[in-house]
Amino acid sequence: MEEKSHSIMDEYDGAALGDQRLERRLGTIVSAIARNPSASFPSACATEAELEGFYRFIRNERVSFEELLVPHIEATYGRASTHGTVLVLHDTTDFSFKGEVREGLGTLQQSAKGFKGHFALAITEGDSRIPLGVMGLHVWTRTENSPTARKLRGELSPRLVNRMTTDQSRWFELVEDVEGDGDSRLVHVMDSGADDYTLMANLVGRSSRFVIRMHHDRALVDEEERLSEHMSCSRAVFTRSVKLSRRRKHAGYTHKKRTAPRKERCTKLSFAANAVTLKQPNHAEPSLPKQLTINVVRVWEPKPPKDAEPVEWMLATTEPIDTKASIERIVDMYRSRWTIEEFFKALKTGCAYQKRQLGSWDTLINALALLVPVAWNLMHMRTLSREDPGEPAQRVLTQTQLRVLSLAAKPPPPPNPTVADVLRCIARLGGHLRSNGPPGWLVLGRGYTKLLELEVGFRLASEANEK
Predict the structure, then answer these.
(1) Residues whose CB falls within 8 Å of the CB of residue 399, separated by 6 or more in sequence, listed in order
(2) How confident is the model at residue 154 (pLDDT cuts 50, 70, 90)?
(3) Which CATH number fits domain 388-467: 1.10.740.10, 2.70.40.10, 1.10.10.10, 3.40.50.261?
(4) What is the pLDDT of residues 21-48, one digit of tens each?
(5) Which fold does the domain 89-178+186-252+259-344 belong to in CATH?
(6) What is the mean pLDDT of residues 272-285?
C-alpha cells in the first residue's frame, strides 16, 4: 500500500455540504483545479459536463463559503498542534475584478469593484517560517456610501461609533475566531493598520499575545512627552548590521514615507525596549481601561544615507523584553509578517483568483474558499524549497508523484531526493531556467500542474495493466 505524505485533497476532506452528491462533486472540482491552479475554470475542467457540474456546484445554495473552508482550517490547527509557539499573521487585502458588473460587489480604491478579505495565516516561528495554513478569514464588501468610523465621528457619539462593526474592529473579531476560548501558543502579528487602543486593550484583557507595529504617536500617563519622544531617549541595547531589500513603488498605499521606493543597501540598526503606560484616547469607549501598560521595542537607523528615508519601527507587544535575545525575537516575529504578502501573491498570481469570470458575490467567495488551500499548498512547496532544502522530498510529494517525476524530469531527481531536488525538477517542468533565479508563482504553478496531469495518466495506465 502506498505511504501518503500530504495530498491537497486532505484540505477538503470532511466538508459538510449536507449532500453526498455535492461532496463527491467537490472532490472532482478540487482535482481539476489542483491540476492547473492558474487556468480558467473552463480550461481546468476536462469536459463540458464537468464544467457544467462545476457551475451548478458553485451556485448551489447549500454550498457555503464557511463550510468549504472548515476542513482546511481544521487541518491547519492540526499542523499547528505539532509546534510550540505559532505566529498568526493578520492582514487585509483587496480582491478587484475587471470586466462586466458582478452582482453584490462593492467599491474599492479608485472606483474598482470587488471586496475585502481579512486573513489569519499561521506559520512556524523561526527562520524557516513554514506556512501551516489559514486559521480564519472574513470577507465583506463596501459601497461608496458605507459608513465608516472616521465619517461618523463628527455625527455620532464616540460610544455609538465604537460599537459599530468597522474595518478596524475586524482585527479583534478574527482573533476571537482564531483563539476561541484562548490559546497561549499563538502570537498575533499585525501591521500598523492594527494600531488601535481598543484592539490592544481587548487583546490584553483576554491574555492574547501580540506584536503590533505602531503608527500613532500616543500620549503616555503621568508624562508630558509622547511615545516617540520617550522612546527616542531610550539607550540602544545593541546594534545589528542588516541588508535592506529593494522596495518597489506600490500603488494604493497611504503611508507614503514607509512605503516609498528604496534601493537595496546594507546598514546598521539600533534596538531599544521599554515598558510604557499609554493613556486612553479621548474617543475610546469609556468602558475600556483608562491606561494600558505594554512593552514597546524601537528599531531605528541612526545614520541613514542622505537620500534615503531612515528605517524606524515601533512595535507594541506582550512578549518579554528583558534580554537582547528576547528583543531580537520580537523584531524577527514582526519581520515574519511579510510571509502573508507571499500568500496573497500565491492566491492572486499562482491561482489567478482575480481573473475568475464568475458573476456574483456568492460564486466568487465560494471560489475563494476552493482556492485558499491550493494557494497554501503552492506556497508551502516553495517555502520548503528555500528554507528547508535538505528535508526529504516526501514532505511535499507522494510516492506516486515522486515516481512520475523521476520518469518525466530531464534530468531526473537523484536517489533519495530532497525537497530542493524535486522543486527544481517541478520548476523545470514549468519551463523555468536556472539563470532566471528562484522560480516564481506562475512557473511553479505550471510545473505542478504538469506533474499532476502526468500523475493522472500514470495511475490510469497502472490500473489498465492490472486488469
Answers:
(1) 2, 3, 4, 5
(2) low
(3) 1.10.740.10
(4) 898 889 888 878 877 777 788 888 878 8
(5) Transposase Inhibitor Protein From Tn5; Chain A, domain 1 (3.90.350)
(6) 91
